[in-house]
Amino acid sequence: MNADVAAENPSALSLWNDPTAPVDARVDALIAAMTIEEKTAQLFGVWVGAAADGGEVAPHQHDMEEAVDLDALLPTGLGQLTRPFGTVPVDPALGALSLARTQARIAASNRFGIPALAHDECLAGFAAWGATAYPVPLSWGAAFDPDLVRRMAAAIGRDMRAVGVHQGLAPVLDVVRDARWGRVEETIGEDPYLVGTIGTAYVQGLESAGIVATLKHFAGYSASRAGRNLAPASMGPRERADVLLPPFEMAIREGGARSVMNAYTDIDGVPSAADESLLTGLLRDTWGFDGTVVADYFAVAFLKTLHGVAADWADAAGTALHAGIDVELPNVKTYGAPLTEAVADGRVPEELVDRALRRVLTQKVALGLLDPDWDPVPAALDGTDADDPETLRGRVDLDSPDNRALARTLAEEAVVLLGNDGTLPLDRPRRIALIGPNADEPTAVLGCYSFPQHIGVRHPGTPLGIGLPSLRETLTAEFPDADITYVRGTGVDDGDLSGLDEAVRAAREADVTLVALGDRAGLFGRGTSGEGCDAETLDLPGAQQHLLDALLDAGTPVVTVLLAGRPYALGRAVTESAAIVQSFFPGEEGTHAIAGVLSGRVNPSGRLPVGVPRAPGSQPGTYLGAPLAHANDASSVDPTPAFPFGHGLSYTRFDWSDLTAEAHEAPTDGEFTLAFTVRNTGDRGGTEVVQLYLHDPVASVVQPVRRLVGYTRVTLDAGEARRLTVTVPADLASFTGRDGRRVVEPGVLELRLSASSADPRLTTRVTLTGVTRHVDHTRRLHATFVQKPATA
Question: Which residues form the signal peptide (predicted)?
Fold first, then answer.
């Protein structure tokens, strides 16, 4: 299609369409031929929704934006299409046709035949109707399994690419600092190393499928005051450097991410969208990132409307461009006419426009969008009849059996057994009382960015598009001989206790009570978890704690099951429940996973990616706290969690022994090698998650009491043992020193091989010798584990 586009300079056209020419030369030639209007047109998106009949997309009317006139925009080109699949429910094949027809129109409407780059959400699966709903990122963290997350992301990317999408807005690399924040479910956990390794694996998977991964939110969003969405973030430069930035650093260096999205928040009065030192100085000049920086939705306009650092739309555009934001999303507000006029009158240098444009066009060239054989028809529609759209309906499967198998495996690995007095696994109970607001709610397994909860709720009557068995249904199948009595008891957050007496009666008549509690995912106050659904305290929402306490008083063993987006304080249940099973929105296969853990079909191996608080008012809090952040005699408040980061039980037992070290001293540019044995001493196979923590007792600045620097999953049959060797680079002891530079200091360190952040099993002291050494973003980031069969 591009080859047929007329242009005033045919030789230059052939250069930018020539796939054998150097990318830089192609891009330079195209920029030189473009007018300022054509340049800025590549720097914004238009929010659209695919047509349900396969026709062209329709502009989405959002209450924060004016209507968009595509006919007026397209002659100068268009940079991006925003969420063609994630705006309205549409059959995937017809959505792909709608996108293809629109892309053909976009390319035919501008002088250079440039199509748009289409992006969509993919936080817990492709956010399209009928696509697999995987566990949310907090469950990825609970699995401690980067390889599995990489496979999941590759599957998500293949589905997106097959229908014509180029860019995915994931993963979220924000490190949890306050569990009251509504978007905790979207994060991977409270530890930067866990977030970095799992998030990098996701990036690698998505990019392997040809999808541009977008890291968000850069940087500091999760550190907002009091856990309030979009609130200012309070932190010093050291906290930002040592806690919030490392996941982004790792995902760029090792993941190959090609895009970054700014955070909404301001730090010390500087919004991220206006922070040149962050978006250009650190990201590009220091780390060497050469991809695109895209604005979080409306973030450029927010420089005027929310932050008050821009006088008008042109000022907002110039400020964001200068800082390093290349693309305005989701719609055009500032990078269109206001920016064009500001360049014309000299307020914004055209060089800034060209800088952003070069990055955008370089990415489009890499995606093949400027090649002469570019075809708007995606792979999913190959060999189909586009002239008869109805024959396409149902032809594209975004929820394949392979997808569902991945979703189930991840859900099973992510379930965390917090406590168990021996009641679990259940041994063929005759009478089960199943109680609670999430016991018979199919969508209780979904996060706020799943299509049914994000978009589907605005289209009542539209089928969910995927199978979502409730916990009641899967338990009925898991325990076919049991008499299961279901009572709702109360709602998630309605405070209704009219069903309390019935629930207590059912519990008293049962052999075991299963109470399913937790959250309802939603957006901006429509749920108890999700974007804009922040919590004042970590009490269970509504009257759920009241219901739980009444069931504990009923005299029947109570198994507490959580389907939630954040950890909650559970009150008496911490010590009085027979067992506690924690899941974080485990996706469409999640209730099968929970039922399997309850029956023993699945041996739980999940570990907490965030601590479970003992008291509802203990936030902000994190295991990464310095000594003064932990319990002490100077305060009457004890922030010790009920269940710490990294905690999780199994139905078998593991013995750790025989720790040796090759040497107890190494220079500050050296490494230590440890070896130890893990043996399954129980009567069934299981998986232990070995966690390596570093404790630095004396440093030039205050350090966390412990921090995770490595982990590995060890799967063992009953009686089996493995000898593990772990190499620990001195670089892992680095931190930001007093002068703002990252250092490795000589001195004594403690390496703790642990079952959780609070459960060290094997500990050794080692010493770094020599001089203080400065390191940078090229430092070694990982401890290396090797597993071999143990000798008798």
Answer: none
